[in-house]
Write a structure and sequence with these properties.
The chain is α+β, with helices and mostly antiparallel strands. It has three domains: 133 residues, no CATH class; 104 residues, Lysozyme (Orthogonal Bundle); 138 residues, endopeptidase domain like (from Nostoc punctiforme) (endopeptidase fold (from Nostoc punctiforme), Alpha-Beta Complex), CATH 3.90.1720. Helices cover 46% and strands 12% of the residues. It has 18 helices and 13 strands. α5 crosses α8. The radius of gyration is 23 Å and the shape is globular. The N terminus is likely disordered. This is C40 family peptidase.
Length: 430
């Protein structure tokens, strides 16, 4: 059912509120939508741009000057700090990032080093899997990639700054990072994270938040501009499509301003969630593999978005998480096969809701040829499919996303000797 009010369309089935701009883009932009959904960093980056550009308060400008930073250096330092915050990383991560950038480029993005082979604030090498030259020269991309490698270092928060920075950067001068630690701490303290007070006054009902959130994901994936989406939300408010928005009387009767605040707030929440989930598991090499994995990529991304959803025995299916049965009753979530059924349903493939049907839902794949999204089965007796007890979605042959057991949540797991011993086989649906 579609309810129309001017350019506003409230799509009841999807719980969304999407402008005619987005609908038009959908007709000609299906390829872009699929490409964005298949590359989690593109979706995350697109959503994060909707948070708007935070203003730089006078206190920050004064602090930057006192710490002998140019406007470019301060801006790049703030990118490192805000990216760490978006990814849910502790203050220590921002300190390590800034110290590394101070050593590599003095926080100047136009620095070119290593005989013309290293670029950007972290002097990253395209030939070593950091991205293209254009990507490593983008401070935000470079910072996210830096942090994606940082979080893979075992117990990194307990190690010295120089040890962690060297493990990421592989510098010929591994001890040089330490001398920047004190200054990096001062910068993080002085520059801090972008202020969020400007959006704290907006309160929406859960239903209205869900509607804006669903539409925002679609609009960003289709490349709809933030201004167009804000205008659409404003029309939605005026048409009564977002009833709880009118209760934000503290923001006055200016619906344009209210729409701006709503989009910034919802985009900020979604940006943080996507960044946390994606940044924990996806590196450039994994992303490169995902881009060539077709429907498997769509299934894997769908499963990754469910990280943190509770395990519920007998729960979940093609429509998403649901209340379980038996000892899963009362918990809304997924069991292992419920998660895989949901993920592949998002890719347009029906694989059934039980491991026995999923085992026969595609072609067999050797362990050495696993691709993102492939179903991997574990059994007490690997030679007997009747003993299969668990199914997961492959990420990169070393890690997988799954719903483990009662009391846990959807999470990323790693292959161990036990998993190798219980590996019964893999299936590629579709």
């Amino acid at each position: 059912m579609i309810l129309e009010a001017g350019l506003v369309k409230a799509i009841a089935a999807g719980g969304g509120l999407v402008s005619s701009v987005a609908v038009i883009a959908g007709v000609a932009g299906g390829g872009q939508y699929a490409a964005t959904q298949a590359d989690p960093t593109k979706l995350s980056s697109a959503v994060c741009t909707y948070t708007g550009k935070p203003s730089t308060p006078e206190k920050t400008r004064t602090a930057s000057t006192g710490l002998r930073l140019t406007s470019e250096q301060a801006a790049n330092a703030r990118i490192i700090i805000s990216t760490a915050d978006e990814l849910g990383l502790p203050r220590r991560a921002a300190i390590i990032g800034i110290a590394a950038a101070l050593q590599e480029s003095s926080l100047h993005n136009d620095t070119v080093g290593d005989h013309g082979r290293a670029f950007g604030i972290f002097q990253q090498h395209p030939q070593h899997g950091w991205g293209t030259r254009a990507q490593v020269s983008d401070p935000r991309h470079a910072t996210r990639t830096f942090f994606s490698r940082l979080i893979k270092i075992d117990n990194w928060t307990a190690k010295t700054l120089a040890t962690v920075a060297q493990a990421i950067q592989r510098s010929a001068f591994p001890d040089a990072y330490a001398k920047h630690e004190a200054r990096a701490k001062r910068l993080v303290t002085a520059l801090g994270s972008p202020p969020t007070g400007r959006t704290s006054g907006v309160k929406l009902s859960s239903a209205d938040t869900k509607a804006v959130r669903a539409s925002l994901e679609l609009a960003t994936a289709l490349g709809v501009t933030r201004a167009a989406f804000v205008a659409d939300v404003q029309m939605g408010i005026e048409a009564g499509a977002l009833p709880s928005a009118r209760k934000n009387t503290s923001l006055g009767s200016d619906t344009a301003h209210l729409a701006e605040q709503i989009v910034t707030t919802v985009a900020g929440q979604l940006c943080k969630e996507l960044s946390q989930k994606i940044g924990q598991v996806l590196d450039p090499d994994t992303l490169a593999a995902i881009r060539t994995s077709g429907r498997g990529a769509v299934a894997l991304v769908a499963a990754l978005k469910m990280i943190g959803v509770p395990y519920a025995w007998g729960g979940g299916g093609a429509m998403g998480p649901s209340y379980g049965i038996g000892h899963g009753a009362g918990t809304k979530g997924f069991d292992c096969s419920g998660l895989t059924e949901y993920a592949w349903a998002k890719a347009g493939v029906k694989i059934g809701g039980h491991t026995s049907t999923q085992w026969r839902a595609g072609v067999r794949v050797p362990r050495s040829q696993l691709k993102p999204g492939d179903l991997v089965f574990f059994a007490t007796n690997p030679n007997n499919p009747a003993t299969i007890h668990h199914v997961v979605l492959n990420i990169d042959g070393k890690r997988y996303v799954h719903a483990p057991t009662t009391g846990s949540r959807v999470q990323v797991g790693q292959w161990t000797a036990r998993q190798e011993a219980q590996f019964a086989g893999a299936v590629r649906p579709g």
